[in-house]
Amino acid sequence: MQRKIVRFVEEENLFYRDEKILVAVSGGVDSVVMLDLLCKMEVECGVAHCNFHLREEESDGDLEFVKNLAKAKNLAFYSVDFDTKKYAAENKISIEMAARDLRYNWFEQVREISGYKYVAVGHHADDVAETVLINLARGTGIHGLSGIKSKLGKIIRPLLPFPRKQLLEYAQAHSIHFREDRTNAETDYVRNKIRHQIMPVLEEINPAIRATMTENVQRFREVEQIYNRVIEQNRLHLVFTRENQLLISIPKLKELLAPVSHLYELLSLYGFHHRDIRNIAESINGISGKLFYSATHQLLRDREYFILSEITEENTKEYLISEDKEQLQAPLELTITLLDRTPGFQFPSDSKIACFDANQLQFPLKLRKWKEGDAFRPIGMKGKKKISDYFIDQKFSLQEKENTWLLLSGSKIVWVLGHRMDDRFKITDTTTKIYKINLI
User: Which intervals hold domain Lysidine-tRNA(Ile) synthetase C-terminal (predicted)?
Assistant: First the structure.
């Protein structure tokens, strides 16, 4: 094992011998064996341990064990306590995901502050096979089939060539003590279900399933490299930037094999998920004007391009107009007048002036940019019309769409500013008070 880990470190270029490594040690066999192997390579190590407080006294026992192990090896020791359940509840994520976020964030803090080059974690060959199965069950692309990377940023995984059985044999042969985590035998967590329920069935089909999965993962990684190169080559002809926008050519996208995969690689970085990208891909042969949103960006299906832009504060902010407001300076300049309805009242012909039945309005009014799904009842019509369809009918340019503001009473659109009023707020024979807005 010592020769094999040295060869793996060199082949994967994990680190140089003179670089300091922070070793994440839980107390289990994998991390304890990893620490032993790295120390025998005469690597300068520090030991980091997280107490997640998920197993009551056992968690504290793990802490004492790892602390004493570091002391016996005369290594620097770092530890931290986490309220993992509270963090998971606050962030609405699983315990597994909470523990992962907490430990990796803390590892990076210790690494940077204490001058370590990398953080070594104890994932082994069995973890690779389990990860691929988890990804397949949840849904994955080619990246999810390539398993766990031996080196990702500042995280290194020196034990990936070794199955857990070999780690146990090494520990027994070298009289290495470690802690048994009783939760590893439970099936409350997804990974444990794979380990204890799925893998045994696969081993009945193929007794060498773990070795087979390792070989498959290696092939998938090679396929991933080819895939990444093709995506990058096509990106050069497919995408360009304009000011703060990313433009993806729709005609060139149509010429490509697997346009969905290209869109995924281009857009997943901006928070778009598989379902979003499927919908975006379906719009390739559709009409222009459709908008798609992630948490941080919007994508417009224009005539020749998909146009990606960041959602700015202006695009999401709502401006309130109180009942006594007479003037507004931002984001638009408006003057507001409350009038009594008189017999000689003349409706203004200027599209930048709108008059409404004041008694039909619910204050405060809201002013915001339009969003996908917005609909109103254009004056003179009985039925509703989507704002996006109204834009198409009126042949709005992209710039006009982006600069269009809506006035709302409650959740109802009152006016597409500078263009069309809503029929529900029009002046009628029963109107006594008129709310007049002038768009300067």
Answer: 365-439
